[in-house]
């Protein structure tokens, strides 16, 4: 399998994640779609690391994982707080601010 | 133009601006504590500025070259960007300085009486002081940025003062109209300044005038036209004239100071100051001529039809400034004539407005001339001073207007070509119309049968109001003679405009004077035949000729504005959004309507849904990526 | 295999160490400090950290070096923007610390975990306890921003982006009043922000793949050697999208009005002032350093989004009735004006032309002004909290002439009226654009400023020429912190308008990127 296959796979995953953000209502699922996007980038990074023969890409993937973990903490805290108030995790319900 | 560094009193010329500014600051920040003496402070600062200005001018006369640059401070000085703030005191700016502070002082004094019963008098004087300071900065700055700052400052003060009685919806609307139309002009001026910067890297008068010679013809013409746009906006010239008559909603002293004597002449100042630019671009200068000629006729025709005393005077102002534009458009031969007419006009028009204010004061703020009549006996001082101003305006021989208007007409005829004849003819025709509408105004106000109601008791105004009127009346009588014959203004202004070539007179000056006087007499006679001889109906007759009907509607200027800007604006809105524009109402004009409409429609896109925002971002990202790929591929 | 320790110039890192150190100490204080004295201690720690950062950046002036193994570029532009962020950050922290205005003693909720509107929540409104977690969080955000503008490496840039964003997501959800709005703002900001970060990260990956490096200088060399092609262009596009989001440039601005309106006003002030500086610092560094040779690829794009941003911001601002929202759209328009300046460069080698200093000055001027404007918003209150609806501001000048005057000053500066800092800034960026031949853009910018001037002036007219409502809002008497903020920002707005020479000169001298 050539490098291209991995890249295409990562691009497909990224697209799925992006589309998921657009079509899913549950904030947790939306958030998971964003995580999917980040992980598809990880796949891209390690693929490129392999292709260019440098190790930077793999190290970056670790950085991304750490950052993503921090993002999960913050994100879940915010989503939880609004869920407790509204008893709903639907992003479409959060619609007071507009125009 | 060579300038020397300021010395002695002249290096304190900044005080002329600082004094009124200080007055405004004290009055605005001092709050109610200053209510009791605020108006006196406001007046005192302007009078002090006038005295100082007078001393500066006297000293200036002794300076070689008659031009002094007083460097104040360096505004911006980094790398290629270098804007110094300095003051330029030369004969031109000194003349304006005296006009502004002189007429300003008189009108401050007058306002003490006129605004005596207004609870917000302190604020009025604060704005008036602010105006004087900004106007002085406009004329005294030694670069276009300082001029622009003053330009915006007077615009702001004018806006505040038009809307001074903001509880009247008409005043608020008029202020808004003035604001919007002035913005159009301001954009022109701002763009002109940017062009100067981009092309010459400087905005100081010295640098710009030194460098314009190297510019391409097209750039010069663009520069001239942009400056003209700015001038038209501020001076109420065609096609941006509509705001000026509406601006009469402000208190009458404001109309006298800002919308007759000083601010509206800023456009003339701008073009006269930029003479070195216009000298190089005949095209732009030709447009100035056309604007002046069209406006002077337009104002005179419309002035014949209105019954509102202030509106008539306003259209007269529009028309007289048209004369000045015509004169500056003529080039070196016309500059001095324009400034001379500007000065005399400052005197008699300010006097006329103060007189009108005095009449309104007497009649309980009535402005409809059909309800006046026979006031000559009740208001003797007002009648005499107003009458002298009237004679000066229509160009009665040997009064102010006669000298300065004739000079402009002569200069126009001296061109010698068909355009000269055309312009001269227009100017003479304008003089006749001026005589007509002003005589009509005089007859309807001061003569004939009294048409006011029983409960009105016209009384002469207090002396604090009449005294300035008397001073201005004396000016209206004598200024022209003094400026043309005794202290020739063209000699005084020579350091600025250079020595004009001695033109060959196409028509002998005496003959011109004779013809103009004859046409004027014709106008007066016509007015007497149409108005003075008969009874004036208290309600304007409805069955009138199409010409009168057109004039009554300001020659359809608002209709034109509406169909040229508002309608297409609305159609555009509809086409853009495919929705009926029910939401768009009350907008000042088409532009605002379009913007407001598109604003609320665009606002719908801000749905409040996270997912639609994300969709917008994704779409944006795709467009960005696509655009970049297209650029690299192409 | 041995790993070489990267060279670290501690001196050059001092500002970052100061701020991040203060943030870490803040976390410790939060964990171990006694509750009663926590508030003053936290405020002191945060202020010492940010002011220390400010002072050290000033001391470092003139430094030009690449350190931390090439990951950080401490250069003139970076230090100028770091100092701007640290200064504006310290002022924002002062707004956070204001205790006199809200009857509940603070703008922040006591316990974010308590559901909004519950009984416990209403009880907590009356207690005098205040929440102190915001200080270390905000300090982390300030540190992240300062790292962002000196990042010389796409990975560090990404990490800094997250370090500055995550605390912001949290503190925008911590308003004491109108908690539903605040929480909604936090959710929106968080989801959209992470979405944008993912784009940025994908851009990093693509550029890495195409050029084999993430160092900005390395990317520059590779790009100049015409390597990469399509992949690099796609990567650049995604990187720019991520940064434009943070800078709230249309069409990536949609979060801005909602978040600005919902977040606690001190936080909104912080975001409007500091985030803008940080985001533009990164945009400038990315475009000038890494893609300086690819100018003709990105210029049309910046041209386009600048126009869209100015028009959207100015037009949508017209019909806003909420002042915070109006200022948010103003922020979008100003992002467009700033982009106008970004275009004004002949990016040749070390000289960045007139665009860079103009944008740097604009950022400083705009940051101070907008911070001041939001600070005024915290003063005007009705029973429910801040009175941000336009109609509530009618006739404010009669109630409180000073407040109205100060607000007018800020609004005039935002409108770009001469003798205020806004005019100088606009002048500088438009001139830079014109010098580089971006004529039509400057024209659009002028028209957009004219339109935008209308809605700023409308507020002034409303304050001065309308009769105040009977049950209108009251104007609170600010405590020392807010008074300091108002005095500093108002004085700076005036000074940068009247005698901007010194600061413009400083920006001119500092406008250098290394790396």
From TrEMBL, chain A:
<comment type="function">
    <text>NDH-1 shuttles electrons from NADH, via FMN and iron-sulfur (Fe-S) centers, to quinones in the respiratory chain. The immediate electron acceptor for the enzyme in this species is believed to be a menaquinone. Couples the redox reaction to proton translocation (for every two electrons transferred, four hydrogen ions are translocated across the cytoplasmic membrane), and thus conserves the redox energy in a proton gradient.</text>
</comment>
<feature type="transmembrane region" description="Helical">
    <location>
        <begin position="6"/>
        <end position="23"/>
    </location>
</feature>
<feature type="transmembrane region" description="Helical">
    <location>
        <begin position="28"/>
        <end position="49"/>
    </location>
</feature>
<feature type="transmembrane region" description="Helical">
    <location>
        <begin position="61"/>
        <end position="83"/>
    </location>
</feature>
<dbReference type="GO" id="GO:0042773">
    <property type="term" value="P:ATP synthesis coupled electron transport"/>
</dbReference>
<dbReference type="GO" id="GO:0048038">
    <property type="term" value="F:quinone binding"/>
</dbReference>
<keyword id="KW-0874">Quinone</keyword>
<keyword id="KW-0812">Transmembrane</keyword>
<keyword id="KW-1133">Transmembrane helix</keyword>
<keyword id="KW-0520">NAD</keyword>
<keyword id="KW-1278">Translocase</keyword>
<keyword id="KW-1003">Cell membrane</keyword>
<dbReference type="GO" id="GO:0005886">
    <property type="term" value="C:plasma membrane"/>
</dbReference>
<dbReference type="InterPro" id="IPR039428">
    <property type="entry name" value="NUOK/Mnh_C1-like"/>
</dbReference>
<dbReference type="GO" id="GO:0050136">
    <property type="term" value="F:NADH dehydrogenase (quinone) (non-electrogenic) activity"/>
</dbReference>
From TrEMBL, chain B:
<feature type="transmembrane region" description="Helical">
    <location>
        <begin position="254"/>
        <end position="272"/>
    </location>
</feature>
<dbReference type="GO" id="GO:0016020">
    <property type="term" value="C:membrane"/>
</dbReference>
<feature type="transmembrane region" description="Helical">
    <location>
        <begin position="507"/>
        <end position="531"/>
    </location>
</feature>
<dbReference type="GO" id="GO:0008137">
    <property type="term" value="F:NADH dehydrogenase (ubiquinone) activity"/>
</dbReference>
<feature type="transmembrane region" description="Helical">
    <location>
        <begin position="613"/>
        <end position="633"/>
    </location>
</feature>
<keyword id="KW-0472">Membrane</keyword>
<dbReference type="GO" id="GO:0042773">
    <property type="term" value="P:ATP synthesis coupled electron transport"/>
</dbReference>
<feature type="domain" description="NADH:quinone oxidoreductase/Mrp antiporter transmembrane">
    <location>
        <begin position="143"/>
        <end position="427"/>
    </location>
</feature>
<feature type="transmembrane region" description="Helical">
    <location>
        <begin position="124"/>
        <end position="141"/>
    </location>
</feature>
<dbReference type="InterPro" id="IPR001516">
    <property type="entry name" value="Proton_antipo_N"/>
</dbReference>
<dbReference type="GO" id="GO:0012505">
    <property type="term" value="C:endomembrane system"/>
</dbReference>
<dbReference type="Pfam" id="PF00662">
    <property type="entry name" value="Proton_antipo_N"/>
</dbReference>
<protein>
    <submittedName>
        <fullName>NADH dehydrogenase subunit L</fullName>
    </submittedName>
</protein>
<feature type="transmembrane region" description="Helical">
    <location>
        <begin position="321"/>
        <end position="340"/>
    </location>
</feature>
<feature type="transmembrane region" description="Helical">
    <location>
        <begin position="12"/>
        <end position="29"/>
    </location>
</feature>
TrEMBL record, chain C:
<feature type="transmembrane region" description="Helical">
    <location>
        <begin position="44"/>
        <end position="64"/>
    </location>
</feature>
<feature type="transmembrane region" description="Helical">
    <location>
        <begin position="326"/>
        <end position="347"/>
    </location>
</feature>
<keyword id="KW-1003">Cell membrane</keyword>
<protein>
    <recommendedName>
        <fullName>NADH-quinone oxidoreductase subunit N</fullName>
        <ecNumber>7.1.1.-</ecNumber>
    </recommendedName>
</protein>
<keyword id="KW-0812">Transmembrane</keyword>
<feature type="transmembrane region" description="Helical">
    <location>
        <begin position="477"/>
        <end position="499"/>
    </location>
</feature>
<dbReference type="GO" id="GO:0012505">
    <property type="term" value="C:endomembrane system"/>
</dbReference>
<dbReference type="InterPro" id="IPR010096">
    <property type="entry name" value="NADH-Q_OxRdtase_suN/2"/>
</dbReference>
<dbReference type="GO" id="GO:0042773">
    <property type="term" value="P:ATP synthesis coupled electron transport"/>
</dbReference>
<feature type="transmembrane region" description="Helical">
    <location>
        <begin position="401"/>
        <end position="419"/>
    </location>
</feature>
<keyword id="KW-0520">NAD</keyword>
<feature type="transmembrane region" description="Helical">
    <location>
        <begin position="300"/>
        <end position="319"/>
    </location>
</feature>
<feature type="transmembrane region" description="Helical">
    <location>
        <begin position="439"/>
        <end position="465"/>
    </location>
</feature>
<keyword id="KW-0813">Transport</keyword>
<keyword id="KW-0472">Membrane</keyword>
């Amino acid at each position: 399998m050539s490098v291209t296959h991995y890249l295409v796979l990562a691009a497909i995953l990224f697209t799925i994640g992006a589309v998921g953000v657009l079509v899913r209502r549950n904030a947790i699922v939306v958030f998971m779609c964003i995580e999917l996007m980040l992980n598809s980038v990880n796949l891209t990074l390690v693929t490129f690391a392999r292709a260019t023969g440098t190790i930077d890409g793999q190290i970056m993937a670790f950085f991304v994982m750490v950052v993503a973990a921090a993002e999960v903490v913050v994100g879940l805290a915010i989503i939880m707080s609004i869920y407790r108030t509204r008893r709903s995790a639907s992003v479409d319900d959060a619609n007071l601010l507009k125009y | 133009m060579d300038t020397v560094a300021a010395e002695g009193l002249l290096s304190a010329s900044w005080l002329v601006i600082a004094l009124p500014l200080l007055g405004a600051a004290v009055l605005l920040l001092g709050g109610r504590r200053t209510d009791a003496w605020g108006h006196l402070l406001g007046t005192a600062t302007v009078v002090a500025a006038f005295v100082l200005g007078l001393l500066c001018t006297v000293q200036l006369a002794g300076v070689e070259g008659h031009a002094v640059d007083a460097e104040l401070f360096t505004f911006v000085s980094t790398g290629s960007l270098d804007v110094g703030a300095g003051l330029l005191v030369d004969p031109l700016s000194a003349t304006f300085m005296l006009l502004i502070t002189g007429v300003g002082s008189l009108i401050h004094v007058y306002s003490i009486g006129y605004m005596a019963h207004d609870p917000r008098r302190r604020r009025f004087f604060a704005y008036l002081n602010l105006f004087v300071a900004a106007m002085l900065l406009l004329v005294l700055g030694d670069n276009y940025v300082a001029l622009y700052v003053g330009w915006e400052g007077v615009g702001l003060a004018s806006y505040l003062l038009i809307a001074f009685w903001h509880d009247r919806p008409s005043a608020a609307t008029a202020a808004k109209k003035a604001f919007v139309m002035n913005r159009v002009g301001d954009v022109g001026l701002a763009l002109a300044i940017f062009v100067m910067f981009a092309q010459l890297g400087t905005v100081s008068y010295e640098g710009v005038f030194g460098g314009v010679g190297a510019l391409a013809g097209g750039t010069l013409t663009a520069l001239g036209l942009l400056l003209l746009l700015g001038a038209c906006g501020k001076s109420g010239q065609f096609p941006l004239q509509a705001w000026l008559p509406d601006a009469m909603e402000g208190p009458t002293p404001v109309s006298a100071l800002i919308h007759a004597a000083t601010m509206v002449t800023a456009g003339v100042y701008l073009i006269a100051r930029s003479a070195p630019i216009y000298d190089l671009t005949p095209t732009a200068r030709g447009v100035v001529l056309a604007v002046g000629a069209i406006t002077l006729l337009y104002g005179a025709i419309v002035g014949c039809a209105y019954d509102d005393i202030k509106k008539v005077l306003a259209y007269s102002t529009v028309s007289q400034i048209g004369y000045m534009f015509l004169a500056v458009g003529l080039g070196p031969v016309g500059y001095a004539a324009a400034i001379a007419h500007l000065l005399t006009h400052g005197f008699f028009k300010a006097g006329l407005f103060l007189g009108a204010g005095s009449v309104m004061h007497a009649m309980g703020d009535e402005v409809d001339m059909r309800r006046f009549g026979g006031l000559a006996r009740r208001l003797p001082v007002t009648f005499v001073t107003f009458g002298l101003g009237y004679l000066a305006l229509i160009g009665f021989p040997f009064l102010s207007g006669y000298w300065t208007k004739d000079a402009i007409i002569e200069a126009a005829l001296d061109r010698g070509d068909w355009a000269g004849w055309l312009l001269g003819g227009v100017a003479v025709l304008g003089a006749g119309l001026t005589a007509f509408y002003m005589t009509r105004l005089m007859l309807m106000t001061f003569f004939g049968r009294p048409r006011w109601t029983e409960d009105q008791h016209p009384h002469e105004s207090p002396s604090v109001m009449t005294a300035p009127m008397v001073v201005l009346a004396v000016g209206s009588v004598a200024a022209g003679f003094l400026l043309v014959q005794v202290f020739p203004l063209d000699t005084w202004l020579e350091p600025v405009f250079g020595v004009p070539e001695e033109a060959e007179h196409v028509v002998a000056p005496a003959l011109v004077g004779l013809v103009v006087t004859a046409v004027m007499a014709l106008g007066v006679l016509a007015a007497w035949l149409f108005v003075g001889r008969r009874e004036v109906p208290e309600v304007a007759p409805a069955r009138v000729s199409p010409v009168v009907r057109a004039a009554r509607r300001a020659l359809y200027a608002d209709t034109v504005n509406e169909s040229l800007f508002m309608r297409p604006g609305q159609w555009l809105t509809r086409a853009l959004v495919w929705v009926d524009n029910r939401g768009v109402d009350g907008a000042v004009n088409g532009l605002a309507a379009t913007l407001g409409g598109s604003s609320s429609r665009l606002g719908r896109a801000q749905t409040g849904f996270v997912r639609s925002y994300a969709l917008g971002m994704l779409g944006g990202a795709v467009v960005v990526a696509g655009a970049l790929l297209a650029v690299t591929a192409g | 295999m041995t790993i070489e320790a990267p060279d670290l110039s501690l001196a050059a890192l001092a500002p970052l160490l100061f701020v991040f150190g203060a943030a870490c100490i803040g976390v410790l204080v939060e964990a171990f400090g006694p509750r009663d004295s926590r508030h003053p201690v936290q405020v002191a720690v945060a202020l010492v950290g940010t002011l220390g950062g400010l002072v050290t950046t000033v001391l470092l002036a003139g430094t030009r070096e690449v350190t931390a193994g090439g990951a950080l570029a401490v250069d003139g532009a970076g230090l100028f923007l770091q100092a701007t962020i640290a200064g504006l950050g310290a002022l924002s922290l002062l707004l956070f610390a204001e205790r006199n205005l809200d009857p509940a003693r603070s703008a922040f909720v006591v316990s974010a975990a308590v559901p909004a509107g519950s009984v416990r929540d209403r009880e907590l409104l009356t207690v005098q306890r205040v929440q102190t977690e915001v200080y270390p969080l905000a300090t982390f955000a300030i540190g992240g921003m300062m790292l962002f503008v000196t990042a010389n490496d796409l990975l560090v840039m990404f990490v800094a982006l997250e370090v500055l964003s995550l605390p912001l997501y949290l503190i925008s959800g911590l308003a004491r009043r109108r908690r539903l709005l605040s929480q909604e703002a936090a959710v929106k900001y968080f989801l959209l922000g992470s979405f944008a970060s993912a784009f940025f990260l994908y851009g990093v990956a693509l550029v890495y793949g195409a050029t084999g490096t993430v160092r900005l200088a390395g990317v520059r060399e590779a790009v100049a050697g015409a390597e990469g092609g399509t992949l690099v262009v796609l990567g650049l596009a995604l990187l720019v999208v991520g940064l434009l989001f943070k800078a709230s440039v249309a069409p990536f601005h949609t979060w801005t009005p909602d978040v600005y309106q919902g977040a606690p006003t001190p936080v909104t002030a912080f975001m409007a002032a500091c985030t803008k500086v940080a985001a533009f610092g990164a945009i400038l560094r990315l475009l000038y350093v890494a893609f300086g040779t690819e100018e003709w690829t990105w210029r049309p794009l910046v041209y386009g989004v600048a126009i869209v941003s100015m028009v959207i911001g100015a037009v949508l601002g017209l019909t806003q009735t909420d002042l915070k929202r109006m200022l948010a759209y103003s922020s979008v328009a100003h992002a467009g004006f700033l982009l106008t300046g970004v275009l004004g460069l002949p990016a040749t080698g070390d000289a960045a032309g007139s665009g860079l200093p103009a944008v740097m000055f604009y950022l400083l001027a705009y940051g101070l002004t907008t911070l001041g404007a939001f600070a005024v918003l915290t003063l005007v209150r009705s029973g429910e909290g801040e009175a941000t609806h336009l109609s509530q501001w009618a006739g404010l000048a009669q109630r409180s002439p000073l407040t109205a005057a100060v607000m007018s000053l800020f609004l005039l500066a935002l409108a770009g009226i001469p003798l205020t800092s806004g005019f100088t800034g606009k002048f500088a960026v438009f001139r830079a654009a014109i010098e580089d031949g971006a004529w039509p853009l400057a024209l659009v910018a002028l028209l957009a400023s004219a339109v935008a001037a209308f809605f700023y002036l409308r507020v002034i007219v409303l304050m001065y020429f309308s009769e105040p409502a009977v049950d209108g809002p009251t104007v609170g008497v600010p405590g020392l912190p807010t008074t300091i903020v108002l005095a500093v920002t108002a004085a700076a707005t005036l000074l940068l308008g009247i005698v901007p020479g010194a600061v413009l000169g400083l920006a001119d001298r500092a406008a250098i990127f290394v790396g």
